[in-house]
Amino acid sequence: MKGLFSxxxxxxxxxxxxxxxxxxxxxxxxxxxxxxxxxxxxxxRIGKDIHIKIEVKVKNKRYFSPGTYTNGELGEAMSRLYLxxxxxxxRSFFDNAVEHRLLKTEDLYV
Length: 110
Known about the structure:
Elements: H1 23-34, E1 37-46, E2 49-58, E3 61-64, H2 71-96
Antiparallel strand pairs: 1-2, 2-3
Helix pairs in contact: 1-2
């Protein structure tokens, strides 16, 4: 009985916010979400395997990733996609901002 109720230490898991490790990736994710560009994972089980497609919602338009990802690949794929969307739409926002020159593109590379 003694071992039945003993306390076990849980393994430390990484939170989704820790998956975006660099300052640039964090800012890209924040900028995308602040500008109604949101990524959603859509898992689908096929037998024992889980295949995940990524839905990209930009304003009211929806796009789906052409490929599928595993759980291990999902965090990196979403991080790359947030960076791609930020590079495509967000850099011009930061570089062309007249009133808010506090944060420029070159400031994001730390």
